Structures are given as C-alpha cells and as structure tokens.
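seq as requested:
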Amino acid sequence: MKAKAKQSLSTFLFNVISLASFEASAAVAPYAEEHMEKEATLIVSGKVVSISSKTQKSTHESGLLIARDQIFKITVKVSSLAKGKGVKAGDEVHFQAWRPSTRFPPMPGPQGHQPIPAKGDLVKTYLLYNKKTKTYHPFMPNGIKILKEAKEAK
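struct tokens:
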C-alpha cells in the first residue's frame, strides 16, 4: 500500500509540474506592418544613441518555470516621425524591450523582442505607451526594425 501511495503522489506531482510549465507562453507570432501602423502610439525612425541592459526575474512568465529576462533600455535620436504627438526630429525617445535570459525548462521558439539593435544602428520602431509604467514598449516580437546596422569599430 505504501509503495502505491508514493507512486500516486509522484505521478500527481509530475502532472502538476508538467501542466504548470505549459501555462507559460511560447513564441508570439510577428505582427503585420499594417497592424502595427494602425495600433502604435508612436512610430519613429532614428539612430540608437544608447542601450543598456539588466537581467531580472521574469515578469512575463509564470507557473513553476524558472525564468529570468534581459531588459533593455534603448534611446533613439529621432530623425523622422511617422505617427504620434509630442516628438519631433532631434528629440530622444526612450523605450524598453526584453528577451529571455534563462528558461528552465526551455521553451520552444524565440520569445521577447527580435531583433535587439546595437548602439549606432538606424531603426524604425512601432511603440505602444503603457500608462501604468509610463514607458514605451515596441510591439512584441517585431516592433523594432533595423534599417541599417552600425559599422563596427576597427
């Protein structure tokens, strides 16, 4: 009897852990450019003048998943404004992007923003304003388009 109870408990725990890991989200399908143009709060093109990152506990995943994210703070000097108010050429726009740093168990497909630009890259960004955090975030996963990569310093 005791062995059967242990086996049942083990099976139950395995099933709970398995189901919990499926609650976490997988890769998000890219948005059509027309959808991003319609829904974006701000659409700007410009040069990435600074980028920094930090790794922290994920705010995007839940359940029994071990998850840490890399959060990027990106500043773009605006060269042109396609949509939005309160921003003009020469202004700097700050926004946050993210990508997973650690996932256990691993999840299929890419998560977070793809691609993440480098300092000096020319980009076009489709941004949404989050009133709660008072920050801009690009559409996930493809709200950042790299128009021209920066030349690497030699």
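The longest strand covers residues 66-83.
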